[in-house]
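Subgroup meeting minutes
Present: P.N., E.W., G.H.
Scribe: E.W.

1. P.N. recapped why we're keeping a running log of single-chain structure predictions: easier to compare across weeks, and new members can see raw inputs and outputs side by side.
2. G.H. added today's entry (755 aa).
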Amino acid sequence: MARLGPLLLLVGPALVLAGVRQPLPVLFMVPVGSGGENLTAGLLPAVSLALQDLERQTAPLGKYQVQLQLLDSQCDTAKALKALFDTLWVGPRYLLILGGACPSVTSLIARALPALGLLQVSFEAPPPSLSNRKWYRHLFSTAPPIRAVNLATVKLLQRYRWRRVGLLTQDRPGLTEMTRDLIRQLLRADVQLAAAERFSGDACSGLRRLQDEDVRIIVGHFEDGSVTDVFCCAFRLGLFGPRYQWILAAGRPSGWRLGWQPSSCSASSLLTAADGSFRLQVRQLSSTNTPGVSGRTPQEYLESYLKQLNQEGSEVNPLHAFAYDAVWVAARVLVQVKETAKLRRKFGSLRNISFGEEEEGKMLLEAVKSTQFEGVTGPVSFRNGERMTVIELIQFQGDSEVLVGEFNTSHQQVRVLNQLLRFKGPGPARDQTLVQQQHLRVGLLLYCVLSAAAAGTIFITLTVLCIIIIGRWRWPRRPGASPQDELLLLGLLLSSGSVLFSGLDRTSLPDPVLEIFCSVRLWTLSLGHTVGLSALLTRTWRVYSVCSVQLKNQNQLQETGRVQLWILLLDLLVLTSWQILDPLRREVLQHRMEDSAADQGVIVQSFSERCSSANMELWLTAVCGFKAPLLGLGCFLAWNIRAAAPAVSGQILALSMFSLTGFSASAAVGSLLTSSDPALQFCLCSILILSCNLFILMGLFAPQVFCLLSSSCSRCRSCSRCRSCSRCRSCSRCRSCSRCRSCRLMLQRKRAWSV
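Output recorded in log:
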């Protein structure tokens, strides 16, 4: 009875003034004597202030007196129904129920309101389960529904284009239902839910799973008492800073309570982890400073409420302002129905008639729908049974709370004051690690330089080839002429031309052309290498045979042309099979990811294009498998002729063979090691190919070209003895000619090359 004393005082004045004012009986349903949360103590001062303000109003409100009949629901469905039916049976006739703070009791009674001819005005935020207006059309609340907070969360996500979020929910019935509704709204808004974790005690395990899923935008549904523990875990796991954004959505109006409970983290650590976080909460008091329908400004009401609360020694209830406006809604709709009934009886065609319960219920429902006035919580109006209000967007900055925006449920838009926002980074956090694609390609300048070098090498090779062909045509029996010269120059031409078909990608040419270039590059490089290798190997083999046979029988030389033919046919067989069975295609090669130095939330994903086939390793093994032994054989022969052959010619031929082997091995190894960098791979391989070609040109063909371009005396050129007899070498005329001396020197070299 001690708890019921204050409530009886509310009813007392109504009984005294019953003779003057017409009574308006209203059921006041709150959990008073339950073992759960007691909302009555913090709400009674607000309800008392509302009744006092109603008594001071003029007609028609001043002619009526609201009589509250306490109905203790005890947050128990069976007890609440029994108390309700007992009260309705005793009477008087009630049209309206005020309050209802237990969702389980409210949901059951709200379904029965149409059958009971009652209408309920609540001051508790309706859960999403009560959003079906077909079932709960007689339930209204001055507090905005939880769905409005979830909708504000979705609108905030859409404003900053956060398309991937994670949820952290405390295991409580009301919060779990709020999370389920948010998941449905995220699905409709096409926002990806990366992970949804629940916790009852320790939140660190759920946060670790969110961290494993790389969640950057975290939406939290938990009670204020758990804020300290959650941010302490976030600090230890590093889930704060410019890469993360926290959004705390509160279904009930409340405030920050960071650090009010002891934790293992210091106050500065908690402030660091929570800095920049958002909180969406229902606005408790209107921000205007103008008097409302009661004649009080929101600030005056708050001062009166706190004064009366201190006198009673109770704690502040976050729903007190909504309870105050709920009393005003109940009084206004009941008075409107009573006044409408009087006018109809007085001025209607059928006078002295009584309205039935069904008609009164319809009138009461229409009166609530059309209610509109300025309350202490702001403009009070209903749309589809839901209260239209404002959801505040608060950002925690340092150790203070800053109102940086709001969500209006009327037009469902988020208004943000950008000048007040403060993010930890240069802007809002990204919803996930941004993978920035970086195309590794050969630069235009590098391609032009190496292509020009390849073109220059091709021009030099063609010039040498023309000079040798002309020299062979003019002097068919010229000593030093070898049938391998043209083949070797042809190989140099093909290998140099392969550089022109490398380093291109789809940014410069279409895919069909690039695939053709892949095959052209393969054929020119492989055939050029094979032709050059076979020509050098054949020449080295002949020199080795001559040097070896000189010791035994100089008339026995082995035939090497057939070996050269078999080498070319084998290479053609491998290339043809490769082209038919598994042709080359352009493919994208993904490289490893690297953190961006400019932005912590960006990972650079490098990729490049290359020519490849399904069995690339197999075909490369086949190509290199038969060339590697040939290169080894060539190096063995070159090593043996470096001293046995004439000094100059043997050394140059051996060095040419060694250079071909060295450059080939270097190009193969370098190509494998630099596959992740197309520009470096193109540069390295092109330089090795062109360097090898230029070395062979300068070593083997420069002396021949110099000899052919050198003009000796006409007598020596026409004298056959000058080329054969020993007397010409002692001829005073020839000895006096410097060009002839050069010719004699070159003649000695060509005799060695002629083999």
